[in-house]
Amino acid sequence: MNGRRKHWDLMKIIAIANQKGGVGKTTTAVNLSAALAMRGQRTLLIDLDPQANASSGIGLEPEEDCSLYGPLLGQSQLVDKIQTTRIENLSAVPAEMDLAGVEIELARMDNHLSRLQGVLAQVRSKDVYDFCILDTPPSLGVLMTSALAAADEILIPLQCEWFGLEGLAKIAHVIEQIKDSGVNAGVTLEGILMTMYDGRTNLSRSVVEEVGSFFPEQLYKTVIPRTVRLGEAPSHGRTIFEHDPNGVGASSYSKAADEFLSRHGVNQGEAAGCASDCE
What we know:
By secondary structure, this protein is of the alpha/beta class. It has one domain (12-271): P-loop containing nucleotide triphosphate hydrolases (Rossmann fold). It has helices at 25-38, 53-57, 69-72, 98-107, 115-124, 142-150, 163-181, 202-214, 228-232, 240-243, 248-263, 268-278; strands at 12-16, 43-47, 83-84, 90-93, 131-135, 153-159, 188-197, 219-225.
């Protein structure tokens, strides 16, 4: 089980979530997924955002009936929507604009918060993947809350700006509401990953310190810098490891993936060995 040793039994579901747009959420979902796959982790990336940025970011073109629309409404199976990618160990379920409509249809259902739970259970029971990464929409709509209700853990990308702290408080409150509702009492805030960091400014350093004072266990030591290359990569349908493998963006997401795996008890020696083989 090279690089895949873990202390849990089945696929762990991680929602990458922040109700604010432009904070590096999709960039994190795509590049963390790729980095985990490069380290031998069998990874499934699911794009829940109708804008389909995570899909295009790994080079998948949305096609008709390719998204979770059908599975969420009980019209098809999740396993039939999974696509392989050019990255070894990384599979994906793309998004398309029909997901915007599914929000309305799900809202009419009494069990709308648990629908995604049931859909993911189909794959989880087969033990095909180690991690499932959910890229969520930048809103607190039905798809976002469904992801929080289905996830084992939440990873919040947070921009190094003061107004980001307000958003952090809001999503932390929503996570507590999900837990208290009983629909997903075991969900935890796995981590907070600071993005768009500029070490030349007092602002970035101050925001990181402030987050660390409130969430010392959840705050990642790794920070993701503000870099043009990270912004360019999606326009080419590439991860940062393909677009600029020797740059600071790739280095930072590599470190974030190592920190993520360390938090989950994965043997770092084996994972690093696989990453070296894959690059």
